[in-house]
Amino acid sequence: MGLKKLWFVIERDLRMFVQYKFMLIMRGIWFVSQVALFGLVVNKMVEKAVANYFHYYVAGVTIITLYSISMFIGYDIFEEAEHGVFEYLLTLPVSRRELVLGRSIGGGLRSFIYIGPLLVVVLFILGVSNPLYLLVALASLFLFAFGVSGMSITIAVAMKSGDKYDILIGVLDALIVRLSTTMYPTVYMQQAMPTYATVARFNPLTYAADLFRWGTGVEKVLQFSPLVGVLGLFIFFFSFTFVGVVFYEKRLEGGSWQ
Amino acid sequence: MKAILHVIEYDFRNFFRYRWFIAALIAMNLADLFISAIVFTQMTRGVVDYFRFFAPGLAVVGLFASAFMIGREINMEVRREIHHYMLSLPMTRTELAIGRVLAGGLRGMLYMTPLLITNFIVLRFPTLPQLLLILLTLLLLAIGISGVSISIAVSTTSFEKFVTARGVVYYMFFFCSSVFYPLSIIQVLATRGLWPLVTFAQVNPLTNGSDLIRSFLLDSPEYVFSPLMLLNIAIFSGLFALLATFAYSKILQRQ
User: Fold this and answer.
1) Residues of A with Cβ-Cβ distance to B45 under 8 angstroms
2) CB–CB contact B164 A167 (8 Å)
3) Could you read off the pLDDT of A163-209 as tens digits, one per residue?
4) Residue B43 · residue A188 · CB < 8 Å
5) Which residues constitute the domain of residue A237?
6) What is the value of pTM for the model shown?
7) What is the DSSP letter of A183?
8) In a domain, A258, yes or no
9) Domain boundaries, chain B
10) Of A38, A46, A175, the CB nearest to B31
11) Could you report the predicted ipTM of this complex, rounded to two decimals?
12) A257 in a structural domain
């Protein structure tokens, strides 16, 4: 596998991403309004239950943003199928595997680049208590972003219609975000409905959010060992990158995307 | 009147083309209520019964999102020049514009109905006069939102710009209102120098709409019906329905 060719594929996805400037601006506005309005006001509302919910929420919103940006690669795949760009990609002097792996890495990398400036602001708000923990947390977020991109590619290639993909992603987004600790601690999910807490324990967003809070010092003690969290994200990353690559590679053959 | 009904029928047929999309939106709204709101209820004990508080807000959120969908379609028609066909129909531009604004509002009402019924089931059923007042308020609100959406749709030349503008309007209206949290708690922002946001939240029609439903369904002394709520929404609705009608009929014929 040629690394140079792999890089060309990644670079193309990074360039494509810049084209969505309005979408990126909108996501930025969403992030700011979530932090500056929702976070501040809800912090006041839950101050008796959660000490400094604002910090807890800021870390959670960062993970939600990373998740939604990483999911965007699926829309690119549908756009390409609809506009006949697949055929062009197949004529390039890169192997199917390089193409597919490059897309998966590109999808994760571009979301990390997007989140970069937001992350600086977030770290300014949250502070850093232990740089080593933060590095572990950021490495885990890399795994998370690549895993979500792989998941997005897997879902996109498994579906024939862009509309159905859009709908499924919307519903999945509603469930996966709400059934995680991005917005609220597990203890309250347990009190509300034990099933919610059980689902949240196996949710990659929970691992990513909790590790990020641990890395920045927002939470000193996690409900699971950081090692378990990193391992959980690694399994998520490995499964979906592998499955995504195999699915996408198979679909490229024989024009089955049409 | 017949021409306006034809336009409304056309928009309703378009609306049902997106039935799966609508079903997914309802599922997302219900996930907000039956997952997030239930968990927040545990976190806000002693402050507010969040589940009961949020249920009316959810109906207003659903109404807003669905009434806003008309703008997406009109923006698409403008970009694909389908509006030339619309302008060739045997009706005046004003009839066409009024039909679109009303259709947007009525579609919002249709979408919101299951969410409102959920409210009645989980909170309580209103009396007949209360129900009529709730429906009138929500219809006015939906027409106003449809007006805002159409005004933005005809003023933006690209879909991306429309989506961005829609995002800004959504977040301003949602997060600066009492849809997600009580107005008394929003007032904390004033202490941080964000008093313009507090003022906006107070006059926001979404605040008045959701608080009006709460005044009938929550039986709480904090929420008392005031005719000013209805007046606020009527002014918002009249203003934006007129603006949208004017903008739609004038801007389209100029292109």
Assistant:
1) 48-49
2) no
3) 778 778 888 888 899 999 999 999 999 998 999 999 999 999 999 99
4) yes
5) 3-252
6) 0.85
7) S
8) no
9) 2-254
10) A175
11) 0.82
12) no
